[in-house]
Specification:
The protein is mainly alpha-helical and 105 residues long. The chain has one domain: Arc Repressor Mutant, subunit A (Orthogonal Bundle), CATH 1.10.10. It is built from 4 helices and 2 strands, in the order αβααβα. The chain has a two-stranded parallel ribbon with strand order 1-2. The two termini are 21 Å apart.
Amino acid sequence: ITVIDDILTETRGTAFQERVWKALRDIPAGETTSYGALAKDLGGLGASRAVGLANGSNPVGIVIPCHRVIGSDGSLTGYGGGLHRKEWLLKHEGAMPATQGELSL
């Protein structure tokens, strides 16, 4: 799974989108974060929606692991490929027990 981390990307987005996409690449396989936590890490406490919009604009899903961002309550939310694929990816990475439908932070 970590071999994906070595793939170079050339993305074109706003400065904020680029910051979010870089932060997404820093989330290790097998781990998750919430939109709010990611916003706080980027210095924008209360910017969860902006993070969500940037996450949803990710041009290279999986390489920039937008699937590792979940709701603050641990729920699976917002994935362009469908929540069933997000769940599969997180289980594959070991971030979600096979029988669990929600994650804990």
